[in-house]
Design goal:
With about 90 residues, the protein is an alpha+beta fold. It has a domain of about 60 residues: OB fold (Dihydrolipoamide Acetyltransferase, E2P) (Beta Barrel). Helices cover about 25% and strands about 45% of the residues. It contains 1 helix and 5 strands, in the order H-E-E-E-E-E. It has a 5-stranded mixed beta barrel with strand order 1-2-3-5-4. A hairpin with a 5-residue loop joins strand 2 and strand 3.
C-alpha cells in the first residue's frame, strides 16, 4: 500500500470519528435562566421552560437570572427527579 492510500484511509477514518463524536454532543436544553444557586462544588440552574435542575460542576462560569443558555450534557434521575448533568453551558446573550 502506498503512502497516499494510507493517508487517504486515515483521513476518512478521522472524518468518520469526528462525525460520530459530533452526534453525541447535541444540546439537551435551551432557555432563559429562572433561578441560579452557587455552591462550593457545583452550580444549580433552573430554566423558565423546565422544572428540571441543571447541575454544573464547573463553578468558574457565572450566570445571571435572565441569561439565555444552551445546555449540553446527560439527563439522569436522582431521588425520583429528572436532572441534567451539564458537560458544557453556552451563554447566548
Amino acid at each position: 500500500m502506498t503512502n497516499e492510500k494510507l493517508y487517504f484511509i486515515l483521513s476518512l477514518l478521522g472524518v468518520l470519528i469526528l462525525f460520530v463524536l459530533s452526534e453525541f454532543n447535541q444540546p439537551v436544553l435551551t432557555g432563559k435562566i429562572n433561578f441560579v444557586n452557587y455552591y462550593s462544588e457545583r452550580t444549580i440552574i433552573i430554566l423558565n421552560e423546565s422544572e428540571r435542575e441543571i447541575i454544573l460542576f464547573d463553578t468558574a462560569q457565572l450566570f445571571n437570572e435572565g441569561d439565555e443558555i444552551i445546555v449540553y450534557g446527560k439527563t439522569e434521575k436522582y431521588k425520583n427527579k429528572t436532572q441534567i448533568i451539564a458537560d458544557k453551558i453556552v451563554l447566548l446573550n
